[in-house]
């Protein structure tokens, strides 16, 4: 980062399981962020078409009623919906990091798209390991999904949700010199009072620690669950106890842990804005750079396989010069 950057963290409710309405909402929020002077806007995890809360509320069999609709409203990385969002980024001259459910063939992935201010798709990454019951819906990524992009704003990276609790994943990201990190989160409104690890205290702390460990600005975008979510997912009193309204805890942190934006209330939809002073990175790294002067590679090192892991690898064509082309005298006995 050579100069200050203004960023925006979305805190909003998805247009649940409605891709067309969701894309309209994303485009409106891109325009709102740009109108506020933001050069980068970050969205929550699987904002399109919304986080699949049914996986935490009932059995896999009961949740199957949502699966066809969720799959049909998940977005491809190269379809018309992505094109509309890229065009909006270009029209408003703003970088976008968007959380979405990616449909690829018959599988879904928890994806984040990085889009430049001229509408280029810099990359799409997938969550390396969906968390717990998320694995009943989503597949997993590979080493090529540890992405940090060189942009006009600086080096931008992104992770989803509890990837911020994976020490080796974080270190692999730090090693690429992140300067601005986007953390995409669902609403922190599930199992309130029953599972502290899923609540706001732990998960806002994870974003804060990421900033301080990696000496990077963190733009943590968190979703909201409102009346529409409760009506869709909670058809029993027990489910209404497990999923409560609110859960919006978007935050923006400096690389030495300074909160840079005033939070919204957890039920409020809106956008957090902050200006990121680049000199804070140098200040933070002067004290503790875990991939530089504060490391001990003679004791501890990380082995990373960044190669894609495709399901199908084509065998190269055979050499056209086959054994039948040899004379008998040329064939070894």
SSE topology sketch:
Blueprint: E1 5-11, H1 19-35, E2 40-42, H2 54-57, H3 60-63, H4 67-72, H5 80-92, E3 95-104, E4 107-115, E5 121-126, E6 148-151, E7 154-160, H6 167-174, E8 180-185, H7 200-214, E9 217-222, H8 227-233, H9 237-242, E10 251-253, E11 270-276, H10 279-287
Parallel strand pairs: 1-2, 2-3, 7-8, 8-9
Antiparallel strand pairs: 1-11, 3-4, 4-5, 6-7, 9-10
Domains (count) = 1
Helix content: 25-40%
Total of helices: 10
Uncertain residue ranges: none
Structural class comes to alpha/beta
Termini separation = 67 Å
Could you tell me the radius of gyration in angstroms?
A: 22 Å
CATH class: Alpha Beta
Strand numbers in spatial order across the main sheet: 5-4-3-2-1-11
Characterization of the model:
This protein is of the alpha/beta class. It has a single domain (5-328), classed as Nitrilase/N-carbamoyl-D-aminoacid amidohydrolase (4-Layer Sandwich), CATH 3.60.110. It contains ten helices and eleven strands. The chain has helices at residues 19-35, 54-57, 60-63, 67-72, 80-92, 167-174, 200-214, 227-233, 237-242, 279-287; strands at 5-11, 40-42, 95-104, 107-115, 121-126, 148-151, 154-160, 180-185, 217-222, 251-253, 270-276. The strands form two sheets. The chain has a six-stranded mixed beta sheet with strand order 5-4-3-2-1-11. A hairpin with a 2-residue loop joins strand 6 and strand 7 (154-160). Helix 1 packs parallel to helix 5. The chain is globular and about 55 Å long. It starts with a strand and ends in a 46-residue tail after the last helix. The mean pLDDT is 95.
């Amino acid at each position: 980062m050579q100069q200050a950057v203004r960023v925006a963290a979305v805190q909003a409710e998805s247009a649940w399981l409605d891709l067309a309405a969701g894309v309209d909402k994303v485009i409106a929020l891109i325009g709102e962020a740009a109108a506020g002077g933001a050069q980068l806007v970050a969205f929550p995890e699987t904002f399109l078409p919304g986080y699949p809360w049914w996986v935490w509320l009932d059995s896999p069999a009961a949740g199957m009623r949502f699966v066809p609709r969720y799959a049909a409203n998940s977005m491809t990385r190269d379809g018309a919906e992505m094109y509309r969002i890229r065009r909006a980024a270009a029209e408003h001259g703003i970088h976008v990091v968007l959380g979405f459910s990616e449909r690829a063939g018959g599988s879904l992935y928890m994806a984040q798209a990085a889009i430049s201010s001229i509408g280029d798709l810099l990359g799409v990454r997938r969550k390396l390991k969906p968390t717990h019951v998320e694995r009943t819906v989503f597949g997993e990524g590979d080493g090529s999904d540890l992405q940090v992009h060189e942009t006009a704003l600086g080096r931008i990276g992104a992770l989803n949700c509890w990837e911020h609790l994976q020490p080796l994943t974080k270190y692999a990201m730090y090693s690429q010199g992140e300067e601005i990190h986007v953390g995409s989160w669902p609403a922190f409104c599930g199992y309130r009072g029953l599972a502290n690890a899923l609540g706001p205290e732990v998960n806002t702390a994870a974003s804060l620690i990421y900033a301080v460990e990696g000496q990077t600005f963190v733009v943590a975008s968190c979703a909201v669950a409102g009346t529409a979510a409760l009506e869709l997912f909670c058809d029993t009193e027990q489910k209404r106890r497990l999923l409560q309204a609110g859960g919006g805890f978007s935050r923006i942190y400096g690389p030495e842990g300074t909160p840079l934006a005033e939070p919204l209330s957890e039920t409020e939809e809106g956008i957090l804005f902050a200006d990121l002073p680049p000199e804070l990175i140098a200040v933070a790294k002067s004290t503790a750079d875990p991939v530089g002067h504060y490391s001990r590679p003679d004791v501890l090192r990380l082995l990373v396989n960044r190669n894609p892991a495709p399901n199908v690898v084509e065998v190269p064509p055979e050499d056209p010069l086959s054994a039948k082309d040899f004379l008998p005298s040329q064939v070894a006995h």
